[in-house]
């Protein structure tokens, strides 16, 4: 059994020391590690967004209802609940959706 998995490439190892040694190979291409879980990122901004998930930070707030989000685009999607905007339309049936992923799954 190899319970210790690399957070970058998902290779598995028998012990944490071997895993740590392996993870160092990723440092040149992913120089921004998460201080909490060790996952490494190619860009500081991506790592910062990832850190919010650990810290529970949700800096983007809805002015209508107070719901908070970790990402700006999630707030933008949420605001359509209040505005009624449905910008994604099915070309086959004319059905309209607030989120692109709902149109795709439709």
UniProtKB/TrEMBL annotation:
This protein's UniProt keywords: Developmental protein, Metal-binding, Nucleus, Repeat, Transcription, Transcription regulation, Zinc, Zinc-finger
Source taxon at top rank: Eukaryota
PANTHER family (UniProt xref): HYPERMETHYLATED IN CANCER 2 PROTEIN (PTHR24394:SF22), ZINC FINGER PROTEIN (PTHR24394)
Cellular location(s): Nucleus
Main location: nucleus
Biological function: Transcriptional repressor.
Pfam families from the UniProt entry: zf-C2H2
One Gene Ontology CC term in the entry: nucleus
Domain C2H2-type: 4-31, 32-59, 60-87, 88-106
Listed GO biological process terms: intrinsic apoptotic signaling pathway in response to DNA damage; negative regulation of transcription by RNA polymerase II; regulation of signal transduction
Descriptive protein name: Hypermethylated in cancer 1 protein
Molecular function, one GO term: zinc ion binding
Presence of keyword Repeat: yes
Gene3D superfamilies for the chain: Classic Zinc Finger
